[in-house]
Amino acid sequence: MKYLVGLGLLVVASCASGPPQGFPLPDGRTAYSAFCNGRGNSMATCYRIAAQFCGGRYEVVDSDQTASVVGVNGIIAPAIERNLYFTCEVASRSKTK
After folding, report:
1. Averaged pLDDT for residues 17-31
2. Region 63-86: what's the mean pLDDT?
3. I want to staple 6 with a disulfide (CB 3.0 to 4.6 A). Which of 12, 43, 72, 96 is the partner?
4. What 8-state DSSP symbol labels residue 67?
């Protein structure tokens, strides 16, 4: 039973994401962070979150992915943290001739 509780907590923790959180960029735009942690997700999950949150158009500011090992109630398992930082305001690109 102890193992089932620990495994259940690990699965819930790896899937929990929540809505993107906003933060200001130096240029005045607002960026958001999407967390797509766990073995059942990938960076594609983060991209889908950004597209849904922004209504289709978004610009990636940065991203990272980290692998680590976590322990819950004596159970050790790999953990993958993925973060996508994006803005819904697509920056205009000036064209030069």
Report:
1. 89
2. 89
3. 72
4. E
